[in-house]
């Protein structure tokens, strides 16, 4: 039996460096068209990315994908709103009956990139949806997912995907692994799928499981072109979740797209389920996350962690980060030692 690893199982060895954090370059190329100043995408979740988030993260140099738990016209209007501000963003579609009309309306609204969004991307339906979009609209770039194996990534690339989302079950509000017994620890999933990306000269996004900026450094060092964030962005002002005060502290509502609430709202098909509330098998939960304030303030610290990690490895850019990266496997005691300890935190 093979052993698969996630971010908390490893650290990166520091290297000789003449690089300071302020001199690092965090730009990345996701597709032929999508070039980002920071390697961060906002997840197409209904408590994470609508037009406000897509606009804000785009202004910071990242990229937002507007979720599909919206009517076709509303999603298209939100996309058009962002594009009119000269900020690029994408829109998510599923593989259900409304896929083709949704894509057609989004393209008319100005979409240049479409995300085929499914919990299990290594399926005939996702492959066919990806191929249909590429054949129907040759100018559209397609991000497809999600997968967690080299074979799954190869499958989507062979159907025309320009970029593949990697991650099945690592998210903070995802219960897919508990409910189904299926999944791949995220670091190993990224390392495996990068092999497929290199074979097709394409890229992958590490989607889910990012808890800290250090996790992002590890994902990028493993070969991901960018990371996709959900829970870490859900607490910001620009996320659409409701702001809630609990015992004097502020939080924001956050739910998985596989939660019963989200599926009732429209995302059941993402998990291959019928839209009948009594028949839902949830693969996610709902709850609250700490309120973080403005996205720009959070991202300054988060990307600052990436720059620090690059400097520790002597990497001026993300290409050098991947070249210089050397992972070491750590023990549970090593992980505990990595956390703040022997202090009462204020």
In short:
This protein is 37% helix and 18% strand. The protein is α/β, with parallel strands linked by helices. The strands form four sheets. It has an eight-stranded parallel β-barrel, surrounded by seven helices.
Task: Give structural notes.
Helices cover 37% and strands 18% of the residues. It has 13 helices and 15 strands. It starts with 9 loop residues before the first strand and ends in an 8-residue tail after the last helix. It has 346 residues and is an alpha/beta fold. A hairpin with a 5-residue loop joins strand 2 and strand 3.
Summarize this structure as a short list of keywords or feature phrases.
alpha/beta, TIM Barrel, 13 helices, 15 strands, globular, 37% helix
Classify the fold: give the CATH topology: TIM Barrel
| Overall outline | globular
Strand content: 15-25%
**How many DSSP helices?**
13
Give the averaged pLDDT, no decimals.
93
Strand neighbour order, sheet with most strands: 4-5-6-7-8-9-10-11
Output the helix-strand order.
Answer: EEEEHEHEHEHEHEHHEHEHEEHEHHEH
Highest CATH level, the class = Alpha Beta
SSE layout:
Layout: E1 10-12, E2 28-29, E3 35-36, E4 40-42, H1 51-59, E5 63-66, H2 72-84, E6 90-93, H3 99-108, E7 113-117, H4 124-136, E8 141-147, H5 150-158, E9 163-166, H6 176-180, H7 186-200, E10 203-207, H8 213-221, E11 226-229, H9 231-234, E12 243-246, E13 249-255, H10 260-267, E14 286-290, H11 295-312, H12 318-324, E15 327-329, H13 332-338
Parallel strand pairs: 4-5, 4-11, 5-6, 6-7, 7-8, 8-9, 9-10, 10-11
Antiparallel strand pairs: 1-15, 2-3, 12-13, 13-14
């Amino acid at each position: 039996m093979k052993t698969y690893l996630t971010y908390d199982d490893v650290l990166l060895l520091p290297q000789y460096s003449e690089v300071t954090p302020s001199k690092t370059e965090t730009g990345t190329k996701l597709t032929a068209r999508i070039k980002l100043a920071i390697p961060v995408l906002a997840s197409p979740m209904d408590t994470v990315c609508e037009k406000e988030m897509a606009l804000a993260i785009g202004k910071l140099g990242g990229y937002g994908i507007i979720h599909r738990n919206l009517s076709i016209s509303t999603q298209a209007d939100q996309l058009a709103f962002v594009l009119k501000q000269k900020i690029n963003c994408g829109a998510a579609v599923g593989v259900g009956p409304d896929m083709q009309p949704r894509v057609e309306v989004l393209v008319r609204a100005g979409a240049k990139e479409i995300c085929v969004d499914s919990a299990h991307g290594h399926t005939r339906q996702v492959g066919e949806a990806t191929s249909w979009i590429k054949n129907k609209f040759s100018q559209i770039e397609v991000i497809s997912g999600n997968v967690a194996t080299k074979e799954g990534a190869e499958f989507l690339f062979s159907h025309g995907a320009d970029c593949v989302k990697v991650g099945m079950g690592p998210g903070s509000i995802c219960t897919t692994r508990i409910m189904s017994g299926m999944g791949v620890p995220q670091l190993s999933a990224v390392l495996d799928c990068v092999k497929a990306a290199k074979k097709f000269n394409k890229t992958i996004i590490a989607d889910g499981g990012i808890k800290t900026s250090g996790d992002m450094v590890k994902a990028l060092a493993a070969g991901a072109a960018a990371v996709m964030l959900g829970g870490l962005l859900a607490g910001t002002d620009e996320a659409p979740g409701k702001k809630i005060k609990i015992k004097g502290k502020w939080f924001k509502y956050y739910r998985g797209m596989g939660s019963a609430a989200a599926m009732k709202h429209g995302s059941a098909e993402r998990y291959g389920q019928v839209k009948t509330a009594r028949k839902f098998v949830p693969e996610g939960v709902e709850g609250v996350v700490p309120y973080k304030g403005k996205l720009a303030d959070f991202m300054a610290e988060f990307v600052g962690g990436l720059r620090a990690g690059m400097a520790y490895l002597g990497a001026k850019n993300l290409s050098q980060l991947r070249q210089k990266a050397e992972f070491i496997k750590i023990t549970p005691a090593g992980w505990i030692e990595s956390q703040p300890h022997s202090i009462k935190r204020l």
